[in-house]
Design a protein that fits this description.
This protein is α/β, with parallel strands linked by helices. It is about 35% helix and about 20% strand. A 7-stranded mixed beta sheet has the order 3-2-1-4-5-7-6, sandwiched between helices.
């Protein structure tokens, strides 16, 4: 990856910034993307829509021992609901939530058998929406697979505030996120678009979504020990994608954490 490739990449990001406007308008950018999706699954247009066996099924042994299955689980950033439907095998109630109405519409269309799954539009960068969600559903466990890394750093404290609200006293959060090394990984793959990234990745950023990564050393600032009990974390794992290069799934550098509200903090929030 030489200077020419780097110039091509960052000039592409600049062009898209000028074209799409503020990357913090998450609802607008994600709705634009999901409106273009007419094919999901392994040969689809959604790069993270890996089969549950390559996604939630790998995550489940990490977090299930810490969660009460009778507490509903929120699949935050559910997209078309593939992982939500898998989680329905293990939890009494699953709520899939996404910022894009078109994603929720698709999730409802694809959820044909699971009766314990429902879907909501939710923007967790707005804490008042999290408060309304909590009034409707009460405390929930939360499953997040690659959401934080596309939230701009200025909005992350509000996002975490929303998580705290929805967890309440009894919920547990599992979050697996792409690290800042993900960009280098995607650039190293042999199949490239006009910016030097795999075409499925470029299709996402073309609509205004700007990933910035989430590294393990950011955990202490966003999930401080004064507010959260850290149950488990690991900084050297991967997230699998649908096939993106020469028929092979991507294995993208990632980290995960499992936390819950500290009891005293949760009690103050509930009072």
């Amino acid at each position: 990856m030489g200077l020419t490739d780097t110039v091509k990449l960052y000039s592409g990001f600049l062009r898209l910034r000028l074209k799409n406007g503020d990357p913090r308008e998450y609802d607008r950018h994600w709705e634009k993307f999901w409106k273009t999706v007419d094919r999901t699954g392994a040969d689809g247009q959604v790069v993270w829509d890996a089969s549950a066996q390559l996604a939630a099924a790998e995550d489940l042994p990490r977090f299930l021992p810490f969660m009460d299955r009778s507490v509903p689980i929120l699949d935050l950033g559910c997209g078309n609901g593939r992982q939500s439907r898998y989680l329905a095998r293990y939890f009494d109630k699953v709520i899939g939530a996404d910022i894009a109405p078109s994603a929720i519409e698709l999730a409802r269309q694809e959820t044909t058998e699971e009766k314990n799954v429902e879907y909501r539009v939710l923007d967790a960068t707005h804490p008042e929406q999290a408060e309304a969600f909590h009034r409707e559903f009460g405390d929930v466990n939360i499953y997040i697979r690659t959401v934080m890394h596309v939230i701009q750093k200025v909005d992350r404290p509000k996002f975490v505030q929303s998580l705290r609200t929805m967890l309440g006293e009894t919920g547990v959060l599992y979050q697996i996120e792409l690290t800042s090394k993900a960009l280098g990984y995607f650039r190293s793959l042999p199949v490239k678009g006009k910016m030097g990234l795999p075409p499925l990745i470029e299709q996402v950023v073309e609509h205004g979504v700007i990933p910035v990564g989430f590294d393990a050393n950011e955990r202490a600032e966003l999930f401080p020990d004064s507010q959260f009990d850290l149950l488990k974390e690991e900084s050297d794992v991967t997230v699998k994608t649908i096939p993106i290069a020469q028929g092979k799934e991507g294995t993208v550098p990632a980290n995960y954490l499992i936390v819950r509200n500290r009891p005293a903090v949760a009690a103050r929030m509930a009072s």
